[in-house]
Design brief:
Blueprint (H helix, E strand, L loop, with lengths): L6 E6 L2 E7 L4 E4 L12 E4 L7 E8 L13 E5 L24 E5 L8 E7 L10 E5 L15 E4 L5 E7 L8 E6 H4 L4 H4 L9 H12 L11 H9 L14 H11 L4 H11 L5 H6 L34 E10 L6 E10 L2 E11 L3 H12 L8 E8 L12 E3 L2 E4 H4 L2 E5 H4 L2 H15 L6 E4 L8 H11 L2 E4 L6 H12 L4 E5 L15 H13 L7 H14 L11 E5 L18
Parallel strand pairs: 13-16, 16-19, 20-21, 21-22
Antiparallel strand pairs: 1-2, 1-4, 2-3, 3-6, 4-5, 5-6, 7-8, 7-10, 8-9, 9-12, 10-11, 11-12, 13-14, 14-15, 17-18, 22-23
Length: about 600
């Protein structure tokens, strides 16, 4: 049998109801019990005859006065702490069973100032209007739920633990039913309550950390941070759908993940996605210690955000990119077989669209089909970016010229911004760190420095070039493609220097003549490149190069446009997902 010490009698003007202590200073009750708290004082007493403790409403579920309106919850803060142990909660499923569990409610109807007990049971665990559980009297006789029971804790008769709160009582004593607001539903409206309710997969510290993360969310009016959007990102396309009632707040979505969704990794993905948009640096930092599910299982990879790294909302781009990432890596089962993986990203939530080992001649068709499929994962307002991560010997591949689909002969590079990246560099922690530092430098500069590597530089020492570029170059432009041995060495030196932007013509001057000639197409290419890149922010280059490609592809001049075969290597680890190395050879 439960002790009555934490059961409370609530008065507000002429209204009397019940409540129960949940912390040393906070009491839960129904919003309609304290509906006149704006004009009438609220008093809380825990024993007959004692003076009521003044209290004020500090949280409200949004109840608007109608019996059928949701959110009939109010949190009262007492003027002082009380020296008694607060109520303890049972797991949400403990309210139901076969045979039914006997539930006790301690209320204060008329002529029962000392309180009285009613015995009830939950009809079923099915929610009415997504909010209430129906109650039926335990026996045909005994105390019915009448006015004065509103706000009373419903406790398990054998353990005394709370499973819910009486939210509706019958005006007619002959009607022997009522409604319970389950504890896990009340937690939608007061986040701190979520820490007190047992959840099998999460301890109190994890839930407290998530509550603080949601409370520290400091960006407003960001569509990507809508509760439904974040929830869908967390559960993925095959997870439980958004409930029909929707989510009233970010915490509502977070608590639904904690209490209703069995995938423990979904909570970590939700937190990671939210942290992408929070302006509170300590909040972002707290995420690094978020557990990957119980005992390290599941979850999303931690976000490695160096101190001072801008979040997408403060980066130069108007909106963060939503990349479609195409990774092509040697499969380990032969020189002409590759592991191909196509993924779509919303923030840092990764959805693998397709992954398959393929021969070289099967890569193009598979990639184009998966890219088209990946667009289903992007939101309508997503800032699309197609990024190819390629082995170094494939970086000059004409991926921008691939026909978009079997029914569309237009080049893929005219369909969306398209960039390439080097597979080996993406796997190097040292070079990724250097790239981040480069972008921090670029953000602080009004313009970017373009280093030209013309045909006359073929004999340059690659080691000296690497060291020099690390110190004084933001972008590198090549006069010739990385096909001749000399150009390939300088190309690799630029990659090793962690230059974030590299541009070159896929065809044209081969750079093999060892000097600059008047008719050198490579020199003309670099001149036009410098002219077009002047004063452009490197963070926006994918967009500008996409527009330039569209112009080149649409040109009706008898001579090819100078940018027709323009290749762009562009890598900003802040905007693109962290690289994931292939730790095992996927032979077979």
């Amino acid at each position: 049998m439960t002790s009555a010490s934490w059961h409370a009698r609530i008065t507000c003007g002429r209204e009397t109801g019940a409540g129960f202590l949940v912390t040393e200073r906070h009491v839960l009750t129904c919003a309609h019990v304290v509906g006149r708290s704006g004009t009438d004082p609220v008093g809380v007493s825990f024993a007959p005859g004692e003076a009521a403790i003044p209290a004020r409403v500090v949280a409200h579920g949004g109840w608007d006065g109608r019996e059928t309106d949701p959110g009939d919850v109010a949190v009262l803060e007492l003027d002082r702490d009380v020296p008694m142990k607060p109520a303890e909660f049972a797991a949400p499923s403990d309210a139901y069973g076969d045979p039914p569990r006997r539930l006790l409610a301690y209320g204060f109807p008329k002529r029962y100032d000392e309180g009285t007990i009613a015995e009830y049971r939950a009809t079923a665990d099915q929610l009415i209007a997504g909010e209430w559980v129906q109650l039926e009297a335990w026996a045909a006789h005994g105390q019915p739920l009448v006015p004065g029971f509103s706000g009373a804790a419903l406790t398990l008769a054998d353990t005394g633990r709370v499973v819910g709160m009486v939210s509706a009582a019958a005006r007619d004593p002959g009607i022997r039913n009522g409604r319970m607001l389950p504890a896990h539903i009340m937690a939608r409206y007061w986040p701190r309550l979520g820490e007190l309710i047992p959840t099998p997969e999460y301890g109190r510290p994890e839930k407290e950390r998530l509550r603080e993360l949601v409370a520290g969310y400091g960006v407003s009016e960001v569509p990507e941070c809508g509760p439904e959007r974040l929830y869908r990102d967390a559960v993925g396309p095959f997870g439980p759908p958004v409930p029909s009632r929707g989510f009233a707040s970010l915490w509502d979505a977070a608590w639904y993940l904690l209490s209703e969704v069995p995938d423990t990794g979904a909570v970590a993905r939700f937190a990671a996605r939210l942290a992408d948009f929070t302006e509170d640096a300590p909040t972002r930092g707290a995420l690094r210690t978020w557990p990957r599910g119980p005992h390290g299982r599941g979850g999303a990879p931690p976000v490695h955000a160096p101190a001072g790294r801008p979040t997408p909302t403060s980066a130069p781009a108007a909106r963060p990119w939503s990349p479609i990432l195409v990774e092509i890596a040697p499969s380990g089962s032969g020189d002409h077989r590759f592991l191909v993986e196509v993924s779509a990203y919303n923030g840092r939530h990764r959805r693998v669209v397709g992954s398959r080992p393929l021969p070289a001649d099967g890569v193009r068709a598979y990639v184009l089909e998966r890219i088209d499929e990946a667009y289903h994962e992007l939101e309508p307002d997503a800032r699309e970016l197609i990024a190819f991560v390629l082995p170094r010997r494939w970086l000059n591949t004409d991926v921008a010229h691939w026909k978009r689909s079997a029914d569309d002969d237009s080049p893929l590079g005219s369909f969306a911004p398209l960039v390439v990246m080097d597979l080996e560099r993406r796997r190097s922690g040292g070079l990724q760190h250097k790239l981040l530092k480069k972008w921090q430098h670029l953000d602080a500069q009004p313009t970017a420095r373009l280093h030209r590597i013309g045909c006359g530089a073929i004999g340059q020492d690659p080691v000296r070039l690497t060291i020099g570029l690390r110190r004084g170059a933001d972008m590198v432009g090549f006069a010739s493609p990385p096909r001749a041995d000399g150009t390939r060495r300088l190309f690799q030196a630029s990659l090793n220097a962690a230059v974030p932007v590299m541009l070159w013509p896929r065809t044209g001057c081969r750079g093999e003549r060892g000097g600059v000639h008047e008719d050198c197409s490579g020199a003309a290419f670099l001149d036009r490149l410098a002219e077009h890149l002047a004063d452009l922010p490197p963070s926006e280059l994918p967009t500008y190069i996409h527009e330039l490609r569209e112009t080149a592809y649409a040109s009706d001049s008898p001579e090819p446009h100078w940018a027709y075969d323009l290749a762009l290597l562009w890598e900003d680890p802040r905007c693109l997902p962290d690289p994931v190395g292939y730790l095992h050879s996927p032979v077979g």
